[in-house]
Design goal:
The protein is an alpha+beta fold and 592 residues long. The protein is built from nine helices and 28 strands. Helix content is 19%, strand content 31%. The structure holds flavin-adenine dinucleotide. Flavin-adenine dinucleotide (FAD) binds next to helix 1, strand 8 and helix 8.
């Protein structure tokens, strides 16, 4: 923690109000609500979260003078799935960054919410891969598994944040904002020693609930359109199972050491209302006890632990400059200002709390940067599950890898704003996208760059995996079809395996992007290969890689290379089955 800055900020205490009742569809804290204060010579307004719904009248609390306890370029609020990625990215991109978290450790739903497994999607961001590599290195997950040990995760996240140069303020809850017009000057935080203000230039709300955006007056949606009900909450728990085998009849995930993670309790309620949240915690615990009693009759299990708090799937969706819809998700819509990708299905657990889940496949879709920019607040970004999306769209994008991608994008954007002296709304999107790709984020195939759209392009390979029911087509053309869901599978025989792309005529290119199979914890990522071009009937190597661990590899060529035929020559596919799994080879023309 940095030193306490000897400044003071005159503010009042929060008073309960009726703003933001549950079941309203579009809400905001009314503008003008809050108290005028003077902060460092500026006339500012302090606004607080609306507070618990009052039914016992109001209490008037005398105004207080709050110390300014820290100051940074970028203030990230919420040290969970998105917030850690945001803080690391902002700090690594040169911004003086502080991360504020209400728990005594980082990770949010990944640790305190008891959700210890990443779902699969396209577009895993660079930060996710770093976390996965570090978990593996420290024994916090097994090779090929996306389940992890939450205790190792806490350490990994803390080390990543601090080694990036960001400061962390734990046990501090943001409860309000100090505003000047449409700008946030500081967030009010409640600490064990009382309240204080953290000042900043750009704020990133990663609280999951959009607490800061709501306090600043940004409008939001809550729940499904019919009745405002959000998805149910779940108290996650871990069983210890004697011997081998699964625990059936409940949604369960095997973990290392004979442990089984159970996602089976369902509690209806609105988690921004502390009374409903309290009831949910109690009801969640009741359900755990009843379920464990039943499971013990069928399996040799015992309860090891419950999550530190109930897991909240959905609360506020902060309305931004674009609202991602069910249609965007279902149709796999592409956006010019994409900053993340997702292909996780629509996964809406029944909001009434009764059994039943709407699970529907989607096409890989883009998430536009505009979903991160709240309406009406100039120097704020949001990331994580609370971005601008409808109830159904968020049921897909809410998974942890995508929340990390959103955090990485928001943190990087915040750092650019600080460097360039601009606001999130005026940022150069191509610079943000370039930085994200350089940081290992996968923004998908860009049809504007890909020469393979040329009608004349053809692909050939040394061998193909025999088609079967699971893989009806495995041919090399699938590596140049601009569809990241399909892939070329080489034959099973020993390496070398190769794939040639014939562009039909000599063309200049300055990048080749390879997308290898990412599933199964990355065990099938191609390890050793060369990129070659044909010159006078001979193959000339233009790039050579050994020990690759990245599913998406960008090769840059300066000056650009000119060739008609390009060959991917694999000398070591993977140690398991020697099959090359290539989703796409993109050969990109130089930008104009
Ligand atoms: C029961 C359940 C099961 C799920 N299963 C999976 C799964 O298997 N795989 C998967 O990939 N995804 C799963 N998800 C989805 C995923 O876990 C979440 O959507 C995602 O982690 C949310 O990330 P976030 O960064 O938005 O919020 P969080 O990770 O919850 O982070 C928010 C952080 O902000 C802090 N915070 C909140 N308010 C304040 C405040 N006012 N001041 C300071 N700090 C604050 C919190 O303490 C927390 O650390 C599941 C979710 C739930 C609830």
């Amino acid at each position: 923690m940095g030193a306490i800055v000897p400044q003071r900020c005159e503010v009042g205490h929060p008073v309960p109000s009726l703003v933001g009742c549950p079941l309203m569809r579009s809400k905001s804290t009314p503008r003008g609500m809050g108290q005028m204060v003077e902060l460092l010579g500026l006339l500012a307004v302090v606004k607080f979260l609306s507070g618990p719904r009052p039914d016992l009248g109001r209490a008037v609390v005398p105004s207080a003078s709050l110390p300014v306890i820290a100051e940074a370029d970028v203030v990230v609020i919420g040290g969970g799935t998105a917030g850690v990625a945001a803080a690391v990215s902002a700090a690594r991109n040169g911004a003086k960054t502080i991360l504020i978290e209400r728990n005594g450790f980082l990770g949010g739903t990944m640790t305190a919410g008891g959700v210890h497994i990443f779902m699969f999607t396209v577009g895993f961001p660079g930060f996710y891969r770093e976390v996965m590599d570090e978990l593996l290195r420290r024994g916090g997950r097994l090779p090929g598994s996306r389940a992890f040990d939450p205790e190792v995760m806490k350490d990994v996240l803390y080390d990543l944040v601090t080694s990036a140069g960001a400061r962390v303020l734990l046990l501090s809850t943001a409860t309000g904002v100090v505003m000047e017009g449409r700008r946030i000057l500081g967030v009010v935080v409640e600490t064990p020693a009382g309240a204080g203000v953290v000042k900043g230039r750009i704020f990133v709300d990663c609280t999951g609930d959009g607490d800061v955006a709501a306090a600043a007056g940004a409008p939001f949606l809550l729940g499904r359109w019919q009745d405002g009900l959000p998805q149910p909450m779940t108290l996650m728990y871990v069983l210890k199972r004697a011997g081998r085998g699964r625990v059936e009849g409940v949604l369960s995930f095997p973990m290392p050491g004979g442990r089984v993670l159970i996602n089976a309790t369902r509690v209806r309620g609105e988690a921004t209302d502390v009374r409903q949240l309290t009831e949910a915690e109690i009801e969640g615990r009741r359900q755990v006890v009843a379920q464990v009693r039943r499971l013990k009759r069928r399996f040799p299990v015992r309860l090891l632990s419950t999550a530190p708090h109930i897991g909240v799937r959905e609360t506020r969706q902060i309305l931004g400059l674009y609202i991602l819809t069910e249609e965007d998700v279902a149709l796999g819509r592409r956006f010019r200002d994409k900053i993340a990708r997702c292909s996780y299905p629509i996964d809406e657990h029944n909001p009434t709390g009764l059994p039943g889940t709407r699970l529907e496949r989607v096409k890989p879709y883009d998430i536009p940067y505009r979903c991160l920019i709240p309406r009406g607040v100039d120097n704020l970004l949001v990331a994580g599950r609370c971005i601008s999306a409808t109830h159904i769209a968020m049921s897909s994008l809410r998974i942890m890898p995508t929340c990390m991608a959103l955090g990485q994008a928001a943190g990087t954007a915040a750092a650019i704003c600080v460097k360039k002296g601009c606001l999130p709304n005026n940022l150069d999107i191509s610079e943000l996208q370039r930085l994200l790709v350089e940081q290992g984020c996968d923004l998908g195939i860009d049809p504007h760059n890909v020469l393979l759209y040329l009608k004349s392009a053809r692909a050939f390979s040394d061998s193909n995996y025999p088609p079967d029911e699971a893989h009806p087509d495995t041919g090399p053309h699938l590596a140049i079809d601009c569809d990241e869901r399909t892939r070329w599978l080489s034959g099973r025989g020993p390496e070398p395996h190769w794939l040639i792309v014939d562009l039909g005529r000599p063309v200049a290119f300055d990048r080749i992007i390879l997308r290898f199979e990412e599933r199964y914890g990355g065990v099938y990522i191609v390890s050793d290969y060369k990129l070659q071009v044909e010159r006078n009937g001979r193959w000339e190597t233009i790039a050579s890689v050994k020990g690759n661990r990245r599913p998406v590899v960008v090769h840059k060529f300066s000056p650009p290379v000119r060739a008609r035929r390009v060959r991917l020559y694999v000398t070591k596919a993977n140690p398991r089955d020697h099959i090359v799994r290539l989703r796409e080879i993109e050969i990109c023309a130089p930008a104009d």
